[in-house]
Design a protein that fits this description.
Elements: H1 4-14, H2 19-39, H3 47-80
Length: 81
């Protein structure tokens, strides 16, 4: 179900088209705009800089994972006492 406000907005722009066609057009336009926005960021980093950042992220993830496992392990032991 859609709100009355959205219904009226769709009704005002639909013309001869069905509501489904209008919703589909709006959805596809939204996807197109988002893709265009995201594509601006592709290729910003050079190959070497991208590799360095990827390695940094791997180390951060590894560190976070190890802290989480330590935290979980410590909590399991303390709950058994």
């Amino acid at each position: 179900m859609i709100s009355d406000e959205i219904y009226e907005m769709l009704k005002s722009i639909k013309g001869d088209k069905s509501f489904s066609e209008i919703i589909k057009e709006i959805f596809l336009e939204n996807v197109k705009v988002r893709k265009k926005y995201l594509l601006r960021f592709f290729g910003i980093l050079g190959e070497e800089e991208a590799k360095i950042r990827e390695e940094i992220l791997k180390e951060v993830r590894k560190s976070v994972r190890s802290r989480i496992f330590r935290y979980i392990g410590n909590n399991r032991v303390s709950k058994r006492k």
